[in-house]
Design a protein that fits this description.
Blueprint (H helix, E strand, L loop, with lengths): L1 H14 L24 H12 L2 H21 L3 H29 L1
């Protein structure tokens, strides 16, 4: 169902001429390994998100979360509580980035 929504949005944008003169026009969509891309329309959605910088922010947040988790596991006392707060904040930011990307795909 998601693929059909994306395909419809792409077709509407093409009919309005909004996809003319874009970088990479006429070229195959590159395979994005590790993202679980199942179709060309989904790949286009990831490509748009990547061009907007969304995926880069998500990757950075995932790295920060891994670092915060290590700090949490090593911390004790008040430092552990602060590390847990930082970890929670980063996880919320990542969730917000993913939601924003999903909403972009649904428009």
């Amino acid at each position: 169902m998601f693929d059909k929504l994306i395909e419809r949005q792409i077709n509407m944008a093409q009919s309005r001429g909004e996809l003319k003169n874009l970088s990479g026009e006429g070229k195959a969509i590159p395979r994005r390994y590790g993202l679980g891309v199942k179709s060309a329309t989904q790949a286009m959605g990831y490509s748009a998100a990547s061009d907007a910088g969304s995926l880069k922010r998500e990757e950075d947040l995932k790295k920060q979360i891994a670092e915060a988790l290590r700090a949490f596991n090593a911390a004790e006392g008040d430092a552990k509580r602060e590390a847990m707060q930082r970890l929670s904040d980063l996880q919320m930011q990542l969730s917000a980035e993913k939601d924003a990307r999903a909403n972009l795909a649904n428009k």
